Amino acid sequence: MSSQIVVAVDGPSGSGKSSTARGVARRLGLAYLDTGAMYRAITWALLERGVDLDDAAAVAAAAADVVLRSGTDPVNPTIEADGVDVSEPIRGADVTSNVSVVAAVPDVRALLVQAQRDAIRDSLDGIVVEGRDIGTAVAPDAPVKVYLVADADARARRRASEQGHDDADATQEALARRDHLDSSRAASPLTKADDAVLIDGTFLTLDEVIDAVVALVEEARGR
Ligand code: DC
Q: Minimal CB count within 10 Å: which of 90, 152, 186, 190?
């Protein structure tokens, strides 16, 4: 096997992780894995099945039955649950407002962490993996770890415009609620790994953030 590189990109919602991780993967010809999409796809499947999301045991049992498939091409990342292309519905309000509860269930995390490690193992040249716990739990030995942040205003504006409206205040509240749930849960909470490089993208363009991560990869390859 050639030298495989693993790039972990973590950070709160709306910090620009997806655009950055995809951009880095495209630039370097690496695979790309959106682990948030996996938590969202499980949430979509559980909502479809009418599972009571407050019942952690029921959530864990039903999640184990869902067949997930993640396509890792950064030009066209795909996500399927039980053979259904769910790339659109997983971005809807229903999934977005319920995903943090599902992602806090330890058995769901164990299931997805295993699937994520399998995808990392199967990537030949390497992979850029984005999420909340990649540098801390999924791939603690990744040679490049980035923790991407942006101020709350910038994140809310970005998310609101992605969603096609300009109500940044409502978006900021929703993001704050989700960050709180993601950071305060017992199982692998959102937190910066000690050896992750902190990048604040508030005043940087997307290309500048991508440049910074690519430079870290080149440095790691030269070590
Ligand atoms: O990045 P995103 O907004 O698509 O993530 C959706 C949710 O999934 C988010 O609220 C936190 C959770 N998540 C997680 O707990 N661990 C990950 N590695 C990725 C996402």
A: 186
For residue 69, count other CB atoms closer than 10 A to its CB.
Answer: 14
Q: Could you give the domains of the chain?
A: 5-211 (3.40.50.300)
Give the 3-state secondary structure of residue 79: strand
Query: What is the rounded CA–CA span in Å between residue 1 and residue 104?
Result: 35
DSSP 70: E
Distance (Å, whole) CA 178 – CA 96: 9
112-164: per-residue pLDDT in tens?
A: 999 999 999 999 899 999 999 999 999 999 999 999 998 878 777 777 777 77
Instruction: Specify the pairing of strand 144-149 against strand 5-10.
Output: parallel
Compute CA distances 110 → 71, 89, 116, 127, whole Å. Answer: 20, 24, 10, 20
Number of neighbouring beta carbons within 10 Å of residue 118: 10
Which of 17, 163, 182, 183 for a ligand 1 pocket mutation test, highest count of atoms within 8 Å of Cβ?
182
Number of Cβ within 10 Å of residue 45's Cβ equals: 23
- Could you tell me which residues come within 8 angstroms of residue 162 by beta carbon, excluding any fewer than 6 positions away? none
Which of 35, 86, 90, 108, when mutated, tests ligand 1's pocket best, judged by the most ligand atoms within 8 Å of its CB?
Answer: 35
